[in-house]
Design a protein that fits this description.
The chain has 89 residues and is an alpha+beta fold. The chain has one domain: 2-Layer Sandwich (GMP Synthetase, Chain A, domain 3). It has 3 helices and 3 strands. Strands 1-2-3 form a 3-stranded mixed beta sheet, covered by helices on one side. A hairpin with a 2-residue loop joins strand 1 and strand 2. Helix 1 packs across helix 2.
């Protein structure tokens, strides 16, 4: 999803400094029939953005999961949720 988010931001011509986007990802497993099964993924973004880019970034965040091939592949099998800490610079 990180790559998709960066691509969506680039398409909206949001110029970010190198290292301005980070994602920490946590996978949650549950036991089903004595097997650990990945059931949920939470992605936490930390993004430093130009002050004038907030609207474009919010739109990109709202849409990026639906554009992500990996999220689409996992849809229905693994719940994916995300959050974003945004710092305007």
């Amino acid at each position: 999803m990180l790559g998709t988010l960066i691509g969506v931001l680039e398409a909206r011509e949001v110029k970010l400094e190198p290292g301005a986007v980070r994602a920490d990802v946590e996978g949650i497993n549950e036991i089903h029939d004595r097997l650990p099964v990945l059931t949920r993924i939470h992605v936490r973004y930390a993004i430093r953005i130009p002050a004038d880019a907030r609207e474009a970034v919010d739109r990109a965040l709202d849409r990026h999961q639906s554009k992500c091939p990996t999220a689409g592949t996992l849809s229905g099998a693994v719940a994916i949720e995300w959050s974003a800490d945004i710092e305007e610079v």
